[in-house]
Amino acid sequence: MATTKPVSKPKVDAPKSTNSKTPATFMFNKDNYTLMIIGIVVVIIGFLLMIGSNNVNPNVFPADEIYSFRRITLAPLVVMIGFGIEIFAILKKPAEA
User: What's the burial of 10, exposed, middle or buried (CB within 10 Å: 0-12/13-18/19+)?
Assistant: First the structure.
């Protein structure tokens, strides 16, 4: 009677993690998020400037209030400055530690 030897399976190493030595890096840091929040607040202020006050009489068209400097010029400039801050916050590279 012939005896058979058990066949040993080859050892397979566990896959090595490639990120074990490098820490996780984020795209934005605290400065970027702070600038983003400031930009959002400036945009909200611009939209609040555009709103203005309520019209008391719906039969009267207050042209001097609707076409005022604050609603036509100042508010859109404030909104555009807020969007500019947002773009800068997104494109700003985080400082290297």
Answer: exposed
> What is the pTM assigned to this prediction?
0.69
For residue 46, count other CB atoms closer than 10 A to its CB: 19
Domain residue limits, the chain: 30-54+61-91
Residue 43 tokens read as 């945009």
Rounded to 10°, the helix 75-91/30-51 angle is 170
pLDDT in tens, 8-40: 777 766 666 555 677 777 788 899 999 999 999
CA atoms of 24 and 17, how far apart (whole Å): 13
